[in-house]
Design a protein that fits this description.
With about 210 residues, the protein is mostly helical. The chain contains 10 helices and no strands.
């Protein structure tokens, strides 16, 4: 993992994309790759996920570069592959250690861990749909849990679609300077926040 990150950062520096937080620079550099731009974008999105950098700016950028539909697809591919990578690293390196602690000291958390395994897809969907749980943090935590990889994969893909679409839509609206679509995309993001917040409170009350 350390070697991968080292060579990834070295590669980014060599092609002049060393500042991952400079969205303007990313847009310019990615666009310069022409036909290879989608592959470069997906690779960068994977790297963002592995390095625990926020993916939202990249998702907005996907709409700017490729439009809402292609941007949504590329973002989902990049986010999912990155999430799988972190999941497996977390599971291989830390799961046994975490389970030992849960069994001996935190039995209530161990019960929660068992429930996550039992209701895998629902648990992952819940964490993905609610923006209150950081995407990158979830990858790490779920790798340490007992959730099955199949449930993790399905829950992740389905759960990120609404948010990825909304942010890509916002990005496309920005680049087109379309005031109407900018307002609609912002309303869509707010609507998602309201719906999922209401659902969480309603379920907690029940």
């Amino acid at each position: 993992l350390i070697l991968f990150i080292f060579f990834a950062l070295f590669f980014l520096k060599e092609i002049g994309m060393y500042n991952l937080k400079d969205i303007g620079l990313l847009k310019e550099k990615i666009s310069s790759f022409g036909i290879l731009a989608p592959l470069i974008f997906i690779g960068l999105y994977i790297l963002f996920t592995i390095l625990f950098l926020p993916g939202t700016p990249m998702t907005v950028l996907s709409g700017v570069l490729f439009g809402v539909f292609a941007g949504t697809i590329y973002s989902i591919i990049g986010a999912t592959i990155g999430a799988i990578f972190v999941f497996y690293i977390s599971r291989k390196l830390g799961r046994g250690f975490v389970e030992d602690i849960l069994v001996t000291k935190f039995k209530r958390l161990q019960k929660l861990n068992v429930n996550i395994e039992k209701h895998g897809i629902k648990s992952v969907l819940f964490l993905r749909l609610f923006p209150f749980f950081p995407f990158n943090g979830n990858n790490l935590v779920l790798g340490l849990s007992k959730v099955k990889f199949k449930d993790y994969l399905i829950g992740t893909i389905i759960g990120i679609i609404p948010w990825v679409f909304a942010y890509a839509y916002f990005g496309e609206s920005l680049v087109n300077l379309d005031t109407f679509n900018i307002i609609i995309s912002l309303l869509l993001i707010v609507l998602l926040l309201v719906i999922f917040t209401y659902y969480r409170k309603k379920k907690k009350k029940l």
